[in-house]
Amino acid sequence: MKRMKKVLNYMTPVLASVAIVFSVAAFTKAGAATANNSALTEQSTPAGQPVDLTYAAEKSLPSVVHIKYVQNSRIQTIDVESDPFSDFFDPFGGFFGRGQGGQRKIQTPKKEATGSGVIISADGYIVTNNHVVAGADELTVTLNDNREFSARIIGTDETTDLALIKIEGKNLPAITIASSDDLKVGEWVLAVGNPLGLNNTVTAGIVSAKARSLGANGVESFIQTDAAINQGNSGGALVNTRGELVGINAMLYSQTGSNIGYGFAIPTTIMNKVVADLKQYGTVQRAFVGIKGKDVKRYVDEMKAQDREVDLGTMEGIYVAEVMEGGAAADAGVTTGDVIIEADGHKITKFAELQEAVARKRPGDKMTITYLHNKKKKSETVTLKNEQGNTRVIQNQDLDALGANFRAITDQQKQQLGISYGLEVTKVSSGLLQKAGMSKGFIIQRVNDENIKSIEDLQKVVKKASTSREPVLYIQGLYPTGKKAYFAVPLQE
Mapped to the 3 state alphabet, what secondary structure does the chain carry? Predict the structure, then answer.
């Protein structure tokens, strides 16, 4: 799918020739039952004896679903670059002057894809990857017993590549959720899903590593496994030998795009927080420590490559390259050149571990940060803040908050004003645009440096800005007279 290709292109500089291939689809459910390890008896296997994984397969298979993704055909207007050798008439019936640019309407093909999902509650919440459901017009969920349901999206989080969807049902086979913290390197796990169009498939392997960071998502602390994960496994379940969910399968790491490498799953410690936030707020309430940095080992190696010797007092932890003003780290007294070594008493050896620890928190939560300053150990308890530097709940804004109606400009308006795109404000009622002084008839062309050609374009910009560090819309456009104007519209007080 096209959106997979974009991810692959993005990852190429990070991973050289190694491709990161996202498989399509899988939903997990929210609010799932918590694992009760005391109620389950784990059979101990003598060293050197084979592991019986049949119980885990039988227990988890009913909870993993098949997802069909459909994006309907659309009419889109695209810009056509000038071509001095083009004919006056293009083969699709449009007219272009020789050497001139222009626009053309095209019909995009209908897109379909399949993937996996995990039922996490008996009333129908399902978890999957964001890259699986993004842009879907229809989602069809098929259970292990072949029952079909239409699904709706509750919320998505691009930063962790997780999404929450829901089907309407009762007494559905919800999986038991275990803590990925308890997972050990070398432990047997199963990857359950619908790879390569093959429904209800189970593959086995071990946990190869934990807290892996690949640079694919904004927040990541992957469980690495050699259990076979292929396209279609995304959003499926990674389970332990008791059939309990420990991760959501997300991607594979391979030189060929097929499973000749390792698979990576998002741990349940991150999933649980994302799911809870999407259910309660519709968007993830993300806390920040307020630093930029890198693993100490990586920093030391970079200095050695420059023939510079560095002694930080440790070879494990996070080297602090920059401290954000007013952030939690600054409040703790952390400065550039320090090394963060613990969070809430848990040892931090690499950046992914710090990301996972913070990903469990919300703005307003406390965290104890332990760090080395001039090789001396210090600890401070601070209040975590959101990206906007406060502890308020952040909510996705939509067009309703603007208090206006819009429509794409007509061909006549384009000709009269000498413009090729824009949204006309057809009505202004009580809302943010009225407060900013915008009136009916204004034509919006750019918002936050993004061209606005459709209502969908404006919606995307509003949602993105509402949860950003600076929740403001910088709107550029013109009135029907041709007079240009600019507005700054705060989305939050």
Answer: CHHHHHHHHHHHHHHCCCEEEECCCCCECCCCEECCHHHCCCCCCCCCCCCCCHHHHHHHHHHEEEEEEEECCCEEEEEECCCCCCCCECCCCCECCCCCCEEEEEECCCEEEEEEEEECCCCCEEEECHHHHCCCCEEEEECCCCCEEECEEEEEECCCCEEEEECCCCCCCCCEECCHHHCCCCCEEEEEECHHHCCCEEEEEEEEEEEECCCCCCCCCEEEECCCCCCCCCCCEEECCCCCEEEEEEEEEECCCCCCCEEEEEEHHHHHHHHHHHHHHCCCCCCECCEEEEEHHHHHHHHHHCCCCCCCCCCCCEEEEEECCCCHHHHCCCCCCCEEEEECCEECCCHHHHHHHHHCCCCCCEEEEEEEECCEEEEEEEECECCCCCCCCCCCCCHHHHCEEEEECCHHHHHHHCCCCCEEEEEECCCHHHHHCCCCCCEEEEECCEECCCHHHHHHHHHHHHCCCCCEEEEEEECCCCCEEEEEEECCC
